[in-house]
From TrEMBL:
Name listed for the protein in its UniProt record: Glyceraldehyde 3-phosphate dehydrogenase NAD(P) binding domain-containing protein
The UniProt record lists the keyword Oxidoreductase: yes
Taxonomic source organism: viral metagenome
Coiled coil: none
Classification via Gene3D superfamilies: Dihydrodipicolinate Reductase, domain 2, NAD(P)-binding Rossmann-like Domain
Sorted UniProt keywords: Oxidoreductase
GO BP: any one term: glycolytic process
Length: 336
């Protein structure tokens, strides 16, 4: 059993909780949710605008503990991590979902045995991505699970390069709005983000290309990306153009992708973004929206639930870490 703590309980933290309760290998032991009223926790967990999950039986045991489906979870209320707060709740692995502890120095404040940042790191903390470079994990205590967009593009890029050799890759992620944006026009530190997320398509930047290169360093100088934010609540899409060294028919390439379990190729011509809500696979290639655009040049359209599939990827990486750390005969140094 993998004992887990969750720091922060927004879109990703909540998605991780629901998926963990469908996984008999994972037990959520604690949630750090500063400032939240415990009497509202059941409603918050079981009601969601996007994900129609199976209802969990949530009961309040006391001011610090809740019970979900008969399993006790400790609720913490610490904006600043306290020493031993995870160890005292027997949480061996911690998901950092707040985006406030994205360097190794900051992450060490948690004093957790293992910590997974649910965002790209702001320093040289290693980034690992399931079905990307997870097999290169060597037991580090603090890692980053990179971004939702990186988790979407890397499995496809890796396969294309392995089979056909990528000469260049550029993409734009058409990304659903997130909580970092303004609902209505108002002050914001980032350019253009002071405008309403409800009413605008907003050009933005993405760190996915830099993160992808950290995961696939042999493709440095060949991957470039940007993004736009659109007025939808969830599910995003990547429009990717690649130039391959080998010329191949698009149908043959799609057949190769169909033979890889880490990729889903959708052949339904009628699907739109909401049809991909609450999907766990981060790389869903829309075959009817792909095309050959020139010699050795191809356009791929890729769907991903930027909340649910990212959380599924984080849990897959967690399981891989635990298996490695449990079965490794090598001593694991603290905070590698």
């Amino acid at each position: 059993m993998i004992n887990v703590g969750i720091n922060g309980f927004g879109r990703i933290g909540k998605s991780i909780l629901h998926q963990a309760f469908a996984n008999n290998k994972i037990k959520i032991k604690s949630i750090n949710f500063p400032g939240f009223k415990i009497d509202r926790i059941a409603s918050y967990i079981n009601h969601d605008s996007f994900h129609n999950n199976k209802q969990l039986n949530v009961e309040i045991k006391d001011e610090n503990n809740i019970e979900i489906n008969g399993h006790t979870i400790r609720l913490l209320d610490n904006r600043i991590p306290e020493k031993n707060m995870w160890k005292d709740s027997e949480s061996e692995y911690v998901f950092e979902t707040t985006g406030k502890f994205l360097t190794k120095f900051k992450a060490k404040e948690h004093d957790a045995e293992y910590l997974i940042m649910c965002a790209p790191s702001g320093d040289n903390t290693p980034q690992y991505l399931y079905n990307g470079n997870h097999s290169e994990y060597i037991g580090e205590n603090i890692i980053s699970n990179s971004s939702c967009t990186t988790n979407c593009i890397v499995p496809l890029i890796k396969i294309l390069h392995d089979y056909y050799t990528i000469e260049s890759c550029n993409f734009i992620t058409v990304h659903a709005a997130t909580a970092s944006q303004n609902i209505l026009d108002g002050p914001h530190l980032k350019k253009r983000n002071h405008r309403s997320a409800f009413n605008n398509i907003i050009p933005a930047t993405t760190g996915a290309s830099k993160s992808a290169i950290k995961i696939l360093p042999h493709l440095k100088g060949k991957i470039y990306g940007t993004s736009v934010r659109i007025p939808t609540g969830n599910v995003s899409m990547v429009d990717m153009n690649v130039t391959l060294q080998k010329d191949e028919s698009l149908e043959n390439i799609l057949d190769v992708l169909r033979n890889h379990k880490e990729i889903v190729v959708s052949d339904d011509p009628y699907l739109v973004s909401s049809d991909f809500m609450t999907t766990t696979n981060p790389t869903i290639v829309d075959s009817n929206a792909c095309m050959n655009i020139g010699p050795n040049q191809y356009k791929f359209t890729i769907w991903y639930d930027n909340e649910w599939s990212y959380s599924a990827q984080a849990l897959s990486m967690l399981e891989h870490m635990h298996n490695f750390n449990t079965n490794s005969i090598l001593p694991i140094n603290s905070y590698i």
